[in-house]
Amino acid sequence: MQPLSLDRTNPNAFILVSEGEFSDCLPNADQVWALNLDTKDTQLFSLSTTYGLKAKSMHVFPGFIYKNQNISKPDDFIKPPKVTCYNPSSVQIEANYGNHFELTFTCYLPEPDILTGGIQIRNLEEIPIEITAQLAAKLVPMGKGQPLHPEKSGLNHFLAGKTDALEPVLFMTGGPTAINNPFPALTIQLNIQSHQSQEVSWVLVSKETKTKGLDKARTMITNSWQGGFLANVKRAARQNIQIKTGNPDWDAAFLLAQIHARTHFVNCLRPENAYQFIKTRLPDQSNVNQDEPSATNALSNLELHHLCQVMMPGSVDLFADLLKKLIIEQSKIENSNPEENIFSGRRKTNGCPLLATTVLEVYEVTQNHAYLSDLFPFLSQFFRSWVSDQSSGDENAHIVWETASQLQIDTGLFTYDIWESFCKGLDISKSESPALYAMLYKEAKALYKISKILGERSQMRTFSRWQKELFKRLENCWHEEEGAYSHQDIQTHLSPERELYFPSPINSHIEIKKRFTKPQRLQCHISTSDEHTRVCNVKINGLSIQGESVEEVFKSPEILWVMGRAHLTTNNVFTELTAISFDGLKPGDSFILETADFTQKDISCLLPLWAEAGSETHRQTLASSWLDSHKDAFFRGIPETWPGKGGLPENLPIMTNVLWNTLIIEGFVNQGKSDTAVNLFTNLMGAILHGLENYQGFYPLFDQKNGHPCGQRNAITGLVPLQLFLKIAGIKLFSPNKIAVWGNNPFPWPIEVHWQGLSFIKEGVHTSIIFPNGTTAYHDSGKPVMISSEMD
Fold first, then answer.
1. Are 149 and 183 a contacting pair, CB within 8 Å?
2. Distance CA 377, CA 368 (A)
3. Which of 68, 157, 311, 620 is the one with CA 20 to 30 A from 142?
4. Please, where are the H alpha helices in 248-354?
5. Which among 436, 432, 429 is positioned nearest to 403, based on CA atoms?
6. Rounded to whole angstroms, how far apart are CA atoms 213 and 207?
7. Could you tell me whether strands 751-755 and 242-244 are parallel, antiparallel, or unpaired per DSSP bridges?
8. In the beta sheet, which residues pair with residue 769?
9. DSSP state of 390
10. Which pLDDT tens digit goes with each residue over 270-328?
């Protein structure tokens, strides 16, 4: 396998942190750095941070003087800087100055507040050379502080500065001189013999006092940093699954995604908590307090499932520990109040029902029965929290989302959202969701398998019954004339056409007298003239499905206002609307009364493909008919939504959602449409690479119109789904000694994989494998097969 080689023209997203497997995290001193190769020619490259917003900026960068020439820009080098080694807490950069010398710059974070490494110069000439090596550091303090400047302690020259509560100290071996022009820097002259190398070590310590920093810097300089660096590289090599395709940028993105996933793990100071996961860890965010649940435990179930796509099986132990920890913590939150436990119908679980599915994926790799046994009670409880009303045997009980945010879809759920001006604020708990039925079906199927593995026969029967019930409910969401699954009213099980759209200024009482051809749930959208809230009541009168008079009243405490807008959804379904009344609104305020729209489709309506839920015929129809009618929308992946019968709001931004694309593209693979999956995945990778190459990060969302990335940089939900790529190619890794292959590799080039001594190539249906022990195997059929190094 070729070594890593990424320059400023390749995908770039280099974040450096103290890695949890090597160092404890200091909650209030977690210093995150970024490597920038594209410095606009002002520097060779730079490492930067804000010390958790304790400084406006801090930059560290090298420079060189050779034959009286200042060499400090990428274009000064024949071979500009390129990253040849990258892990969460270390990076190595190489550059080549023609036939004169080679540069190797190494950086390593052994502790959260220490940055160390070396500058190595190799003489390529036939005669000795002299080079002046410089390491500059530029600090722009926050508040009262002092930029870095030269200081001296005894015979030692160093740089020191102050920002907020930190006093950074930069130290170097070899007896350097400290200068202040044009930048604060440590500079040293190196005399290097022909074809020999010389290296100086450096350390930047950023502690609360200069004395502590200087003492630690001297200790670090005395003790070689190379041992920790090499151990870090060796450990990472075991975790990183290296993939070689016909597109080097794809290969880089696969590797960067795996590394970035691990930058979010920290090792706690409290041993009982083991690893924690910090959701965002960037140079320009404030320090993370591990005692703050929103920072460390905010991973949703959907994000956990996506993280599984990225980390498995290379970091299976790390991921499995995190998954178990978060499941147990969710259970504690659920049961913290006996009056509101998981059997009360109050679902406080973290988003989508996906935990059993994710746990089963871990088990397929580890085959750890104890792991399953420990988690099965929690997984069963979480499932019942969604269907707890069913304990009485009531087959008409509702299974619904509580909020639209549970699905983690951005603007694609505009029908149900309340925050933007184009949103319609329909109460999602009044809607049957094919996505929720599909997820629960897959969860029931996973729980059935787990029950079978554990020998829980009564539980097997329970989850088998639930598969049948959820299958039936999902099938009731099928619309034959549209060839699609659809949202529908939870009471009528219909998605009726709009029969009422009534905009009007506010009056105290308005007679309407509208009879509907089908029972309709109603929505009232109120807009104030000054964007302020109102203390008001709204009353709607009409006839129920049974033909009885019904009066529905919305009182002020239950009306939620956002920027002078409120969206009300009736609890009742009406066959006739007679009047609407308002109390507490002002002249100039207005409203729109309309029938609720359940017809608008979004990407979640395609989820039965992923869950393999519903009838095979309907899934095949869905995959084919939807593809045929929306091909033009694929150029950046599957959009979150698309024009329906009512059209889309004029100012609605349509997004490509990496997380949901991962699920649905896998659904097309499940339906045997690998060629379609390749096209969709290729388009999605184009968007992801655009974010890496032009915005130096992974992003969860991309504007379908202009491709601009949106959302949190380096979010988990923006990482490349490595396992999806392998599944499209008909490959599943279990361990370095065990893989499964099937079908045809539909990509236009062979796929080469290297991991812990395992090497294999798949081209078409042909697979050639070399296991770590030297055993070779070949497979020349599209039929599914499990191949192990222990096979005869």
1. no
2. 16
3. 157
4. 248-263, 293-296, 301-311, 316-334
5. 429
6. 5
7. antiparallel
8. 760, 777
9. G
10. 555 566 788 888 888 765 554 554 444 568 999 999 999 999 999 999 999 999 999 99
